[in-house]
């Protein structure tokens, strides 16, 4: 894997070190997460974040273990880091960091206090909500190490205050049980019990959200580090509290072995691919012994069907997980209703509110069968997939229907945003894209052809599917090219002066990246034209991927910043989306264009934000600072997929 490490000049600069985040997942949707500086900058950061009934319904438990070293001289040196609502940063342990490393996906800190060097490693036990934190004396000593446990028990999206109930902490033989929900275990436990008031999260402040909370100082662990190699370790776990995990050092070793095996199974061609293979692993979560799902992004997303299906080939087929992917496709097929795939919302409700999620599902099944030769799955799902086509032809929810005049797919209803550009501000869609969106119809044409092939593999008649495919393809080629030299983004859209359902329609020729799917998909309706692709790249391409809107558009928003309304307003109005690099590279490959230089910026990004991973979004203007989730499934999956495809 690529070498990710920082020395004292990065670690000791809070702005730099606190903007580089690490993630250690538990395989269930929970995680440990923080920054290279050791400073918590988000309400979502913690050492034990526990998944609920769904991956999105997480609870923050153990927040931090703040180390303090007592030297032979009697001096006490604190190695933790907290920012307070007053603006103070205290303690400032990051100033004593001489190195931070990400080794096999696991973070490691190394503090130097003169001749004394102490190292911290942490890992989660794969498949269990359990974190192990190991502190090791590397040089110097003897010293005494204390670890102050800051705790809470709250929804990951909120905060907890001292004016509410005091957390219930019950001391047990080797530590404590907090709120009956999780257990802490380690040496020399001493109960304390007081509020730390006004802990500040700078990233929440930047996002226009409540940035402050109060933490409960539950107590401290302590042990002697007499000679190099001695350790003081703490474990924390949720679930079966009486089922004690193994030693902390063993948990770290187990996690390291597993991560190495994940990488080996993916058979990476180089260090970047190895890094992406391990990054992909974070998003694949087990829902039971045989089934899996996909977390769209950390730290705040759960499972979303569109994200899952766009990510499918990269996360499952490029990493040696075809069997697990097969089970996922079967479980998602069971959610089909009126020809639409369920979109499992982070609210916990099952919703049917996308026009493209189902079409991406058709694509995922087709790719699975094509890549693996698993025709049994194709045969099994074929009736359900045919029903999808029939429902779209007849018409289903939200005005989703095939226009009999041209065979293209139209969609839209008041107040909805059904494509992937689905942001709303105060409930009003920013980009409703009512009508016939370009990528939706590219996916429709691709789905018809993919399903026709599956039908023929099963020995079934596919004439009607191919007839619809020919009609839609001919209409696409006739209608989508725009006088501007690229493709219309939406056909038959309500004119701006008319409400949905009004008399006037127009064709939207805004320069957006959605058209890339018209050249990139396996059964794309168009053959790439180098002149057109270069024109699109000139307006949209950045080092981290394509912008969602060209900078010369009146609606362009260059920085994805501010409060929720500001961020949602710019989400698809110029913000860069790294996942779109996948369709761009596919289209360029088909157009015989060189893409040797297109990965340079995004590969460098692997050490800049979410360490070893790819962010959800980035600003549309230089320096294209990353925004959104630091760890995003489709960003990682698409980069891994097209890099492997180009090998």
TrEMBL record:
InterPro entries: 6-hairpin_glycosidase_sf, 6hp_glycosidase-like_sf, AGL/Gdb1, GDE_C, Glycogen_debranch_N. PANTHER family: GLYCOGEN DEBRANCHING ENZYME. Transmembrane segments: none annotated. This is Glycogen debranching enzyme. Residues 279-641 form the Glycogen debranching enzyme C-terminal domain. It comes from the Bacteria. Residues 20-227 form the Glycogen debranching enzyme bacterial and archaeal type N-terminal domain.
């Amino acid at each position: 894997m690529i070498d990710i490490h920082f020395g004292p000049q990065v670690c000791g600069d809070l702005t730099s070190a606190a903007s580089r985040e690490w993630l250690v997942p538990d395989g269930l949707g929970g995680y440990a997460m923080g920054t290279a500086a050791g400073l918590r900058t988000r309400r979502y950061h913690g050492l034990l974040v526990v998944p609920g009934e769904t991956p999105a319904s997480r609870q923050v438990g153990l927040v931090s273990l703040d180390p303090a070293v007592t030297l032979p001289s009697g001096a006490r040196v604190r190695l933790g880091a907290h920012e307070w609502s007053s603006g103070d940063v205290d303690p400032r342990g990051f100033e004593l960091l001489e190195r931070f490393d990400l080794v096999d996906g696991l973070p490691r800190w190394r503090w130097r206090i003169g001749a004394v060097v102490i190292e911290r490693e942490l890992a989660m036990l794969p498949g269990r909500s359990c974190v192990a934190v190991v502190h090791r004396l590397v040089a110097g000593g003897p010293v005494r190490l204390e670890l102050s446990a800051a705790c809470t028990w709250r929804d990951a999206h909120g905060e907890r205050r001292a004016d509410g109930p005091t957390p219930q902490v019950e001391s047990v033989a080797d530590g404590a049980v907090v709120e009956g929900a999780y257990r802490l275990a380690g040496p020399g436990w001493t109960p304390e019990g007081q509020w730390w008031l006004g802990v500040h999260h700078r990233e929440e402040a930047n996002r226009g959200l409540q940035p402050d909370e109060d933490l409960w100082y539950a107590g401290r662990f302590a042990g002697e580090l007499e000679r190099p190699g001695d350790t003081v370790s703490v474990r924390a776990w949720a679930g079966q509290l009486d089922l004690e995990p193994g030693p902390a050092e063993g948990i770290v070793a187990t996690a390291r072995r597993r991560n190495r095996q994940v990488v080996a199974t993916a058979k990476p061609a180089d260090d970047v691919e190895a890094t992406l293979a391990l990054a992909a692993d974070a998003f694949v979560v087990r829902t039971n012994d045989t089934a899996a799902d996909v977390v769209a992004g950390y730290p705040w997303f759960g499972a979303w069907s569109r994200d899952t299906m766009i990510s499918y080939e990269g996360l499952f087929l490029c990493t040696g997980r075809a069997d697990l992917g097969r089970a996922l496709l079967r479980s998602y097929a069971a959610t089909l209703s009126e020809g639409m795939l369920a979109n499992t919302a982070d609210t916990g409700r099952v919703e049917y509110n996308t026009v493209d999620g189902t079409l991406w599902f058709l694509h995922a099944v087709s790719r699975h069968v094509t890549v693996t030769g698993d025709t049994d799955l194709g045969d099994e799902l074929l009736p359900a997939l045919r029903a999808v086509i029939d429902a779209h032809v007849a018409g289903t929810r939200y005005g989703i229907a095939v226009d009999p005049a041209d065979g293209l797919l139209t969609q839209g209803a008041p107040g909805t945003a059904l494509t992937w550009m689905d942001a709303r501000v105060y409930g009003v869609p920013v980009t409703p894209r009512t009508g016939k969106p370009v990528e939706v119809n590219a996916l429709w044409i691709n789905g018809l052809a993919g399903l026709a092939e599956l039908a023929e593999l099963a020995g079934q008649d596919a004439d009607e599917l191919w007839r619809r495919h020919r009609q839609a393809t001919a209409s696409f080629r006739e209608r989508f090219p725009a006088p501007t030299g690229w493709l219309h983004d939406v056909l038959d859209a309500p004119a701006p002066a008319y409400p949905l359902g009004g008399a006037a329609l127009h064709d939207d020729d805004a320069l957006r990246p959605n058209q890339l799917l018209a050249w990139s998909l396996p059964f794309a309706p168009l053959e790439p034209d180098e002149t057109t692709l270069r024109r699109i790249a000139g307006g949209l391409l950045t080092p981290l991927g394509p912008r969602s809107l060209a900078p010369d558009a009146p609606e362009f928003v260059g920085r994805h910043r501010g409060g929720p309304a500001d961020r949602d307003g710019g989400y698809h109005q110029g913000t860069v989306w790294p996942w779109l690099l996948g369709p761009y590279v596919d289209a360029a490959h088909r157009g015989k264009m060189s893409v040797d230089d297109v990965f340079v910026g995004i590969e460098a990004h692997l050490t800049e934000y979410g360490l070893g991973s790819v962010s959800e979004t980035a600003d549309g203007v230089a320096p294209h600072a990353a925004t959104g989730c630091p760890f995003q499934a489709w960003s990682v999956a698409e980069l891994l997929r097209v890099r492997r495809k180009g090998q």
